[in-house]
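User: My advisor, Dr. K., asked me to get a structural model of this assembly before our group meeting. I'm new to this, so sorry if the format is off. These are the inputs:
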Amino acid sequence: MPSKLQRLFVKSPMRAGAGIVLEADQAHYLGTVLRLKPGDHVLLFNGVDGEWRARLDAIGKKKALAALEQQTRPQEPGPDLHYLFAPLKRARQDYMAQKATEMGASLLQPVITRRTIAERVKTDRLAANAIEAAEQCRILRVPEVREPQNLSKLLEQWDPERLLIFADEAASIISPIEALSAQSARPLAVLIGPEGGFEEEERTLLMQQPFVLPVSLGPRVMRADTAAVACLALVNAALGDWR
Amino acid sequence: MPSKLQRLFVKSPMRAGAGIVLEADQAHYLGTVLRLKPGDHVLLFNGVDGEWRARLDAIGKKKALAALEQQTRPQEPGPDLHYLFAPLKRARQDYMAQKATEMGASLLQPVITRRTIAERVKTDRLAANAIEAAEQCRILRVPEVREPQNLSKLLEQWDPERLLIFADEAASIISPIEALSAQSARPLAVLIGPEGGFEEEERTLLMQQPFVLPVSLGPRVMRADTAAVACLALVNAALGDWR
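Assistant: The format is fine. Below is the predicted structure of the whole assembly, which you can bring to the meeting.
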């Protein structure tokens, strides 16, 4: 059963017969943790060329070698859905990067707001969490991770074709499904603010943009990582590939 | 600003002028961690009598005493929404109990399925996580936590008035919003299966019940704790209090 095989993300291009070099941490995981041996199989994906079954030819301490045998799934494009978020503290941010990947985000963009708590954003850590979620959840596309950007800068440079859906704690309670379903098909983005919400001036700036759609996530306060999954679920269901 | 005051869950009934005894861990948190002193204020709620501002009269090592001054928010009923789930490993289950509380669940019911991994369910730990989420997220009602129950037993004893929405990985992709929106108002429950899904026989049993509604959560695999938030968000938005 191919789905029981270990899945690993690699950076190499993949085509039938090609040899793939796996990195030290992957070699360690396959050889020492899973105790796989030459001749055993794994599944590899690189975000571009679909998923391939590969035979392990050698497993050493510093690397492992695998030969691609057969494509098991073709590449899927996935939704054009950017995920923008105010950085959180470490454990919650790890979790959020994993969750956004499971929800099909194509890009992770940290946004610096006035109430942002985390001082530095480790984008390599965001990428590692996105890869881990993709490996575990049979996802074929790993979201791109961008460097942090200020909210006002982001809005200045925004492609107006892309709808920016923001979870607005100050919204009057209206149906998020109605608000989303009234939109026509276009590239999408979801923005989740910091714990404590946006400052009033930031909210005003957001509301002035013609490409911004505020949505309400109900009468209860939620943590930012909860709001992320909730909002991405509604967007996928109302406008994305859950239909 | 009352919203900046520390919020604590208590078990005592609350009415104006009443004295409340806070337990040892709460006394430790208020006195040693937050360094509050007699005369400082906190917010208390018990899940029944709304939220009250209370003045600390004494903070000791084993307990603290607080006097209720004024009700700051009346009790809210919250949605009639049961959350049923196959138990997970510890960290993810902690997280899931917190998230279900933020999403407004009124009851947490662990369900034993054939592929359930966790052997024992610590219901006191579930309750502690639900209380923590309620304290942090200004929620007034803490979900009831029930003892684990087998899936087949649960279905036998089910109140057929309550719609049981289950996240069905084997569902053909149809719109979850359409499926949910077609339902009329009634008590609700959401069921999330174990990592790895339900066994075919369990799924057949579920599908035979007249009170069961399967919904699809899209084409990607999700971890169970992600599916929980996603499904509860859709239910709240289509049938609950996010409208």
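One thing worth pointing out at the meeting: Chain A touches chain B at residues 95, 98-99, 102-104, 136-139, 173-177, 181, 216-223, 226, 229-234, 236-238, 240-243 (CB under 8 Å).

User: Perfect, thanks a lot.
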